[in-house]
Design a protein that fits this description.
The structure holds 2 protein chains of 2 kinds. Chain A is mainly alpha-helical. Chain A has helices spanning about 1-5, 20-40, 55-60, 60-65. In chain A, about 55% of the residues lie in helices and about 0% in strands. The longest helix of chain B is centred in the N-terminal third of the chain and has 44 residues, at about 1-45. The chains are: A mainly alpha, B mainly alpha. Chains A and B meet through helix 1, helix 2, helix 3 and helix 4 of A and helix 1, helix 2, helix 3, helix 4 and helix 6 of B.
Chain lengths: ~70, ~250
Amino acid sequence: MSDVALERKAGAAPAPIASPRELLPYALFGGLVLMIIIYFVGAEEGALSVISGTDVHEFVHDARHLLGFPCH
Amino acid sequence: MVRSLLIRGMLVGLGAGLLAFAFAYVFGEPQVQHAIDFEDHLAALHHDAMGPEVVSRGVQRTFGLLTGTVATGVALGGLFGLVYAYAYGRVGALGARGTSALLAAGAFVSITLLPFTKYPANPPTVGNPDTIDKRTVLFFAMIAVTILALVAAGRVRRSLLPSLGGWNAASAAGSVLIAVVAVAELILPGVHETPAGFPADVLYRFRIASLGINATLWLTLGLGFGAVAQRLLEPAPHRTGAPAASPA
């Protein structure tokens, strides 16, 4: 590993570490879970509502405004 | 390796979320409170009944804000790690830290800065609850446009690099980016919902604070993840125990 780094010539790109095929399951599952988290902070009980009421919205209210998401 | 990068991305994202919380608490919260005071003042003028307080202001500006920034930091950090796993070795002659810094700068520009020029962050009171559906769709559409425009600009730069050289290729790519974003902003409908009399200073400071919070998030991710990824992908000889005799 260290040899690879040392032998890399200046101005040359390092070898990619993952093939698209290898990345696909991570991208699908990880991406989906992480998107859902962002959804709950950014949009739940705003434009869409999975959980009824306004508890989630009110709890993350300040973060939603300050991070720049549209909010009421 | 992808697994390691995903986990490290989430951990650095956790730290980035904590720093973003600190920035938001110090610089953002006072403006949120000013905006809410204005809202209460308006309600009192019109003799509107105040809605019941579902979550107290004390909880909103501490645990609520912390939960929101940290959850966002972890999620963006994880996504960052996954994008990094693909990008490393595929964005030219950049090492571990350079790739991280480039990705974070690109993310800040395309997710925060450019969309902000059309649909900036708004404090409470600014924004009509009846248009939240439309505003949410427009906000995410704008982000999609700016991300695609930035990726397209990167491809333009790369394809022109051999024939035009670095400066000209980058200038052409920058022109493509600005042109695409400008056309999108002209086509997408504007949102102008600031109520009459809302203090301009509060709006300005709130928006600057919002930019600062997002900058804190991406700066921490870009530099922090770069340092962590370097240890993982390009360990220095003295750390792995190999003799550091080879001339650089």
